[in-house]
Amino acid sequence: MSENLLAIVLGIVQGLTEFLPVSSSGHLELAKWIMGDDSMAKESMIMTVTLHAATALSTIVVFWRDIVEILKGLFQFKNNSSFQFSMKIILSMIPAAFVGLFFEEAIESLFNGNVILVGLMLLLTGALLFLADRAKNTDKQVSFLNAIMIGVAQAIAILPGISRSGATISTSVLLGIDRARAARFSFLMVVPLILGKMAKDVLSGEITSEKVNITALVIGFFAAFVTGLIACIWMIRLVKNNKLTYFAIYCIVVGILAMIIYSI
């Protein structure tokens, strides 16, 4: 596969799996097991940063008004709704940031072809989506306690096989939060973490030692950005219209098949 074509594929996959509740990490682990670790070329660090930048930008484009309000609230230091929402976003980031900083090696050890773990976590993702689709519609907003609990769900979603968007949105809906607000909060809370991860990768120094294919990076960025825009808007509509069951069935079927085939 040519480098430019690979960039398109990686961009589309990143754009879709960043927002749709199917667990990109889980699917990557299954693909590595099916194809063999050595048969899959490792995605370069600079391409990883580029694709994450693209999906972060797509989130910013969709929610730019909300982000402006968050920034205004954060720097005005007035105890109004914008400031409180900003604090809730910050609170929600703490669990995942804590796990990423202090348990990085333990987490990386789980990304080693552990198919049974991936299968079980896909089943858990499916169950959460199934339950969320059957929760009652409300007009409840995110509270400070809710923000912490959703943040814990995001931290748990670091495990391969658990969808980040699926876990955070499902947790929000099961806590009784309005579906539109649940999707909005889920996507907004991940933007600072994506930017932080990008900064960490850049500061690691690994990027400077890589050869750069500008054309492939541009193609990958554009593919991830456009796909991310579509997936983000689509996911919001799916959550509002109680259409998560389709993804629940998909995750459950893939999880069961993976465990059965691995055990044979």
Descriptive notes:
The structure is a single chain. The chain has twelve helices and no strands. By secondary structure, it is mostly helical. It has one domain. Helix 3 runs antiparallel to helix 10 and helix 10 runs antiparallel to helix 11.
What radius of gyration results from the CA coordinates?
Answer: 18 Å
Unreliable spans:
37-42
Mean pLDDT equals 84
Number of strands: 0
First-to-last CA distance: 31 Å
- What is the overall number of helices? 12
The count of domains is 1
Secondary-structure class = mainly alpha
Shape: globular
List SSEs in N-to-C order.
Answer: HHHHHHHHHHHH
Summarize the structure.
The protein is mainly alpha-helical. It contains 12 helices and no strands.
What is the element layout, followed by pairings?
Layout: H1 3-17, H2 24-35, H3 45-62, H4 64-76, H5 81-102, H6 104-110, H7 115-133, H8 144-156, H9 164-174, H10 179-203, H11 214-240, H12 245-263
Record keyword descriptors for this entry.
mainly alpha, 264 residues, globular
